[in-house]
């Protein structure tokens, strides 16, 4: 069981275990917004509902320059697991400007790619192949990208993650 933690301004901060969330609620550092029905937690003196979404009682300042690192999983997720060249199902990533020619591991140079297109493109640029990218490349936007663990989101989290997008 995992719990979505929202800042006092209702922006997503983190995904924590339900035990950690329950400790925050019991110490009055957070309040429960959504809970899992039918699965109570039995304590020595009380019964608590399992929290699915909690909000902190005090605002926590988040560093402004929170960059999302470019990872294989992140690139595939950003491109919705679709090949940037043919639109098919992507299972790998490709450097638009090949690494052998100085291409870097940045959001602007990485694209989701199917194995076929990746092998055909090889060590060339899309311009040399006469190919065009199907979408613009760049770092992902939205609060859901800065919170780890939201790729397997609970359906109860959707309204709160949609606010951050």
Automatic annotation (TrEMBL):
Domain (HNH nuclease) ranges: 70-119
Record keywords, A-Z: Endonuclease, Hydrolase, Nuclease
InterPro entries recorded: HNH, HNH_nuc, NA-targeting_endonuclease
This protein's record includes keyword Hydrolase: yes
Origin superkingdom: Bacteria
GO-annotated molecular function: endonuclease activity; nucleic acid binding; zinc ion binding
Lineage, top ranks: Bacteria, Bacillati, Actinomycetota, Actinomycetes, Micrococcales
Membrane-spanning ranges: none
Annotated signal peptide: none
Protein name, per record: HNH endonuclease
Pfam families: HNH
């Amino acid at each position: 069981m995992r719990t979505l933690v929202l800042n006092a301004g209702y922006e997503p901060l983190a995904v924590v275990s339900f035990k950690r969330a329950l400790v925050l609620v019991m110490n009055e550092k957070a309040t429960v917004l959504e809970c899992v029905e039918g699965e109570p937690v039995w304590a020595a003196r009380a019964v608590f509902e399992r929290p699915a979404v909690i909000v902190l009682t005090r605002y926590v300042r988040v560093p402004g320059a929170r960059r999302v690192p470019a990872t294989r999983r992140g690139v595939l997720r950003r491109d919705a697991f679709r090949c940037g060249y043919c639109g098919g199902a992507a299972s790998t990533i490709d450097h638009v400007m090949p690494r052998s020619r100085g291409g870097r591991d940045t959001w602007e140079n990485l694209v989701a790619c199917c194995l076929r297109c990746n092998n055909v493109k090889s060590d060339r640029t899309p311009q040399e192949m006469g190919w065009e990218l199907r979408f613009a490349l760049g770092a992902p936007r939205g609060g859901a990208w800065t919170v780890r663990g939201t790729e397997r989101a609970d359906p109860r989290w959707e309204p709160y993650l949609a606010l951050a997008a």
